[in-house]
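Technical note accompanying the year-one report. For the benefit of new consortium partners, we illustrate the data format agreed upon in the data management plan: each record pairs a sequence with a structure-token string. No post-processing was applied to the example shown here.
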Amino acid sequence: MNPRFVSFLLRLLLVFYFPLLLFLALATFAFAAYLIYLAFALPFFFLLLLPTMVLLATAIHALAVLGRWGFQRPARNPMEIRLPRDEMTGLIHFVQEIARRHQLPAPWEIRMGADTIAHVYEDDVGRRILVLGGPALAGLSQRALSGIVAHELGHFAAGDTRLSRRAFRRHVAMAVLEAYCAENTLAHFNPLIWFVRLYHLLYNLVWAAHSREQEFAADRHEVAEAGKKRAAASLILLTVTERLPWARLSSLVEGRIATNEPLETAFAEQVRMVQQTSPSEWEDALRKELRQPTEPFDSHPSLKDRLAALRVSPKRALCLALKQRGAPARNLFEDWEAIERELTERLLIPYREAYLAKREMAQIFLGRPLERP
């Protein structure tokens, strides 16, 4: 599908979403009022009173739920940490130089993230935020990181973050309505709800297609900064690692929590496990990842499609990834160890909560407390 048409269709769907909800609500009330009038005016129309009440009740309830939860402001991400600027002098100059070299917008603020590789967004007043994650900072060279930074700044330049900020309330509203439909059986009998969900389906397909085009465009900025070979190597390192169960960050954290072992530097531990992985194990993981196609609702292209766009063979990209050289990205910080410990602690919080919840459920079913290993 033509990228320009996808972009146009996406913006059209964004513009008409809330007007559509308002129109459907008004149409529902008008139709229900008319049926109620007919039910009392004509005896045989009285049978329509029950389905009319179902139609009206689900519409009112859905609007009430939407009004309560569907217009939330973006909440602060607990996985992010904000460091004083004097602790990030090296990183700030590093990012600003990349922005200047490629004439890309510089971020208003740089933050560290515990559960991300890297991403960008605009806050509720439109300030540009760049978030760099622990895995990228701990595991990549500065040259590879420069390509990832250029990729993310490319999203600023293309207006992707502005579009995401504009779409945020619509995404929340859609999520609220979808959750409402999943939890309320009566909603499935309202034809207007069907229409809204079809709109959501179309929107999500278009949004995913547009997002994939954004990623291809941002990859071109990464190539301009770091070269296509290094960009391909970074893709391998950051994508295929998730196919290595012993090196996957979530597996490392869950394993330590389950065995009650301390974990202060999760990202350094992940790097150590990655370095201990044999070439044959990397090749097996790469083959598994390459078998994953790009699905219609995927926001990112598959690894196979991205490498094809870079015109680098998977075998060559893997070879380059395993021979990564250069100054580590973590050297941009004077006290990376302290930053990593704080990021690790942030990362552990949701896993601890999930583990405790599982233990509580197990205690309820077994009727006795569980002992820690």
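Partners are asked to follow this layout when depositing records. Residues 38 and 344 are 65 Å apart (CA to CA).
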